[in-house]
Amino acid sequence: MSILVNKDTKVIVQGFTGKEGTFHAEQCLAYGTNIVGGVTPNKGGQKHLEKPVFNTVKEAVNATGATVSMIFVPPVFVADAVMEAADAGIELAVIITEGAPVRDMQAAKAYAVKHGMMTIGPNCPGIITAEECKIGIMPGAIFKKGNVGLISKSGTLTYEGANQVCKEGFGITTAVGIGGDPIIGLSYKQLLPMFEADPETEAIVMIGEIGGDLEIQAAAFIKENITKPVVAFIAGQTAPKGKRMGHAGAIVSGGAGTAAEKMAALEAAGVKVVVSPAEIGKAVKEVLTK
Amino acid sequence: MNIHEYQAKQIFAKYGVPTPRGIVANTPSQAVAAAHELGGNIWVVKAQIHAGGRGLGGGVKLAKSIEEVEQLASEILHMTLITHQTGPEGKEVHKVYIEEGADIKDELYLGVVLDRAKEMPVIMASTEGGMEIEKVAEETPEKIVKVAVDPAVGFQGFHGRELVFGLGITDKTEQAKFIKFAQALYKVYMENDAEMIEINPLIKTGSGDFLALDGKMGFDDSALGRHPDIEDMRDISEEDHDEREASQYGLSYISLDGEIGCMVNGAGLAMGTMDTINYMGGTPANFLDVGGKANAETVAKGFEIILKNPKVKAIFVNIFGGIVRCDRIANGILEATKMVDVRVPVIVRLDGTNAVEAAEILKNAGISNVISATDLGDGARKAVEAAAAQ
Q: Has domain A138-288 been given CATH number 3.40.50.261?
């Protein structure tokens, strides 16, 4: 078991034939992802990576029965691509592209929600169900199959967390990089109950960042609804106020969204909070061998 | 990206958001000419820097004669203004804005920002103009009126009514003027891909008009491509030199106060590395995300920028290669040691894609002050120890 995606999930790639799309689609195929085709306007009818190319998402869905789309189009085309996927009946769009304007994402997310399509990202590493299905840009080799679910705003901290969990002798069911932009798709609050319901997942790692209040909402949700042990790390305890740390969209202004606030809320909800990401693996071991 | 008050007011004017008349000046004589052109007998001389709290810091002064305009302009131009938002080092003033005096009856606050939870822009208004809005939010949250606007339908009549009744504006003419003001400001926000707009204070004059006495705007960097007119407003002198230089190489750099330089891939891991150094008893000297396209040149540039800081006593390179390949980083480190005098110990932790090749490259190079680490915790510990031994 796993959440959202598995070896049978039919995936298409929007921006299939571009440089990024090609490179990562190839890696995903090598991992075993069931990529059934891709979309690049005006290249319909061609073959790419031995898979059919379509002009529109509608054509691709009709021909392949795909339910998930991995989006690699350039930033200013992201909103269009997301809305096209939603309109074509895609169930989950995984948006990898970095640098999509916030206003565009606001409109695209609202449209997706209205059409019942889930989204992950943008500006994220994607989602991976270990040893079954990788939809994104993470190094697949570090995700060994196991019993820990992982949700992270940060790409490289996803790898760091998963690697430590595996080095402690455990493994991953599904890992989701949700991205740290101001507007994102699925978040802790939607993903936590999926892991709670997944019989294979026995513990959950959640990695957050300064800025926004998603982790605070997650803490309240965990307190009421999650029975499985949760280990959390919040990046940015040492970040100066009012500075944007890279492209993470992590910004602290005023008092809201500090690491200290989030850590306190999570601890109060019974979560095992670690002060350094170097402690994630050990903490998972501790909660699983209790 | 942020812009100056005078630039924000130029944008406001285009959308019919009322402001006092004003002219920007680079020299005291330009300030005098500006005051003559504006006419009247009272002017405000305002320092133009990208930080709030200018008034308290002595960067906003009232002049009651042309001579006073000249004197104040020469005092304020090239002064180093220190406010609660500039940090202790302050900011040098390069421009002043000469504005006609206004008849202030009431001071209000009006702003537009994204409400991340609602995923919509929210208009915030308050009767507590002139105060820091964060402080108002903390101490008297009931004095802030918040109205979220769904961009799919735009600013509606009820948004306006909620604002004016929330602020206690009872005069019908004033209500209409304020609603028009707020609606225009919402349009400024949407059409320019603003990240935030803040007018503090927004004043009501003796004759019942509303004017933006101040104006602060920040923009979504990802959307600047479609706003060349706003990109043209960029003031390089307001940006940190090192941060700007780094960004030209695809590096995202922010300098901090500590002793251990950091070079990391990914913003989250970069912050996590800083946190770990802190946890181990050390202090990070900077945030540096090498991004997804790191190569030998960018890594060398990163070392150069980190080492410009004389406080740096050790450097911790922490890479978890996903898209970034570790062998490229290893080559970058070798390259850097040739190009830059790496005077401090460098602790290197390379994991993920091509980590084995990278370890081989570093081992064969045999550079004396490069220390390898097995994982994040080990690397941070070694960096803290190395810095302490210096």
A: yes
A24 is catalytic: no
What is the per-residue DSSP string for B273-321? Answer: HHHHHHHTT--B-EEEE--TT--HHHHHHHHHHHHTSTT--EEEEEEEE
Mutation site for A-interface testing, chosen from B242, B243, B275, B375 by largest number of A Cβ within 10 Å: B275
Residues B263-307 have pLDDT tens digits of: 999 889 999 999 999 999 999 999 999 887 777 788 888 999 999
Of A106-110, A147-151, B137-141, B378-382, the least confident: B137-141
> B147 and B110 in one domain?
yes
- CATH code for the domain of B283: 3.40.50.261
Helices (H), ranges, chain B: 5-14, 28-38, 66-76, 133-139, 157-167, 172-191, 228-231, 241-248, 267-279, 296-307, 326-339, 355-365, 376-389
Same domain membership, residue B212 and residue B254: no
Identical fold for domains A11-120 and A138-288, yes or no, is yes
Report residue A129 as tokens.
């169900």
The nearest alpha carbon in chain B to A248 belongs to B267
The verdict on B139 and B14 lying in the same domain is yes
Contacting residues for A212 by C-beta, under 8 A, at least 6 apart: A182, A257, B116, B117
Domain co-membership, B97 together with B107: no
Q: The pTM is what?
A: 0.92
Q: What is the DSSP letter of A253?
A: B
The region of weakest confidence among A18-32, A80-94, A246-260, B220-234 is A246-260
C-beta of residue A195 within 8 angstroms of C-beta of residue A149: yes
Q: How distant is the Cα of B191 from the closest Cα of chain A, in angstroms?
A: 10
Question: Burial of A169 by CB count in 10 Å (0-12 exposed, 13-18 middle, 19+ buried)?
Answer: exposed
Q: Do A245 and B322 touch (CB under 8 A)?
A: no
Q: Could you list the residue range(s) of the whole structural domain that residue B34 is in? A: 21-101
Torsion of CA A77, A27, A29, A6, to 10 degrees: -80
A11-120: CATH number: 3.40.50.720
